[in-house]
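Tutorial handout. Part one gives the primary structure; part two gives the three-dimensional structure as tokens.
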Amino acid sequence: MNFITDMINFIYESPTAFHTTENVKKSLEKAGYEKILEKDKWDLKTGGKYFVTKHDSSVIAFEVGEDIKTNGFQLIGAHTDAPSFKIKGETSIIDSNNYIKLNTEVYGGPILNTWFDRPLSIAGKVFLKGSDSLNPIEKIVNINKPIVLIPNLAIHMNREVNDGMKYDPAKNTLPIIGLVEEKLEKDDYILNILKDELKINKEDILEFELFLYGYEKGMLVGLNEEFVLSSRLDDVSMVYSGLKSLLESGKSKATKVLVCFDHEEIGSMTAEGANSNLLGNILERIVIGTGDKDTESLYRALSNSLMLSADLAHAHHPNFPEKTDITLKPLMGKGLVIKHSAGRKYATNGYIASVMKSLCNENKIESQPYVNKSNIRGGSTIGPAIQSKLNIPVVDIGTAVFGMHSIMETGSVKDFEQLQLLFTKFYELKK
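Part two.
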């Protein structure tokens, strides 16, 4: 159970992609991993442990194995971001008849009604004046107290609310942060909050990237505490599981890699996202950094590589059984899921699925297949983007949950524990 409680704590301390990356970084440094920079020349040693970050919201960590071109890479990938609301800038205060509201826009695809009547807070990154224009000072911030709420409309004013409600993000989901005082500095309201939190001069603030997040901490629920109820299970739980497996797995001839991308929830088309050249560039530099400057060595390494794309899946819901495939019904507590899609929204093919099932069987780990119901359009993951860029086998894998993209998602303790064991065994495949 320590693994689960530690995971809940990690998620709670990771309200944004910036904080998730920072917490991964701290764990890596504590374990002896060395931070390297993209702008520097890399001189890497066999057995060396390193990590590199991008915009402080994506991180790639690796342990250099033996003869990379022969043993390749063993990669686990996840994403650091989660659906939320992003504050629209420093003048985002609306004075609305006694109430102070924030102007926000939707980030990703949250289930909007789950954000109502919840204690919310604000976290993200702030940019301050630096030594010159090219080098602003960057600070990660978490207000870490419930200062925001999105209130519901009373049923007496909307008798049809339980028949279904369509929300307008430009109006209905704007969060309230306080009551109007006699003097309201609208243009500086957010800046004053940041100034007080970071103990800085307001005039030094150049820009910020701030998000709302659910303030409630995750918990164990169920008669026997068999469920995990938490924000950001999608996908910070997979980040934590991959990190723990990287740090605790045994020696491998392969180069073990953990890659945690930002912006999966909005399509991955950014410099920090899976649809960029970030991972490919880093893998190439690992090969070069170990002294092998032959381009063919990179391609040989990739041909000997495998990747797990770790993200959550939809459990068969007992209250909505018609939403699940007619024969394949992933159940919580019945093992991790291997995701398939004829349209390749998931990267899994027969070969890599067979490898995963064999690995599960060898280690007495339960697994089950997942497919979307044929008349329901599902989501996707980082898997297909990486597979198409690197031309390596990628399997989409995860745990089955209720309420994906709700502010509080529900998963199975047993499934998370089994998935973490699989991650560890995957890293140890090439002993």
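Part three, for discussion. The mean pLDDT is 94. The first strand starts at residue 34 and ends at 35.
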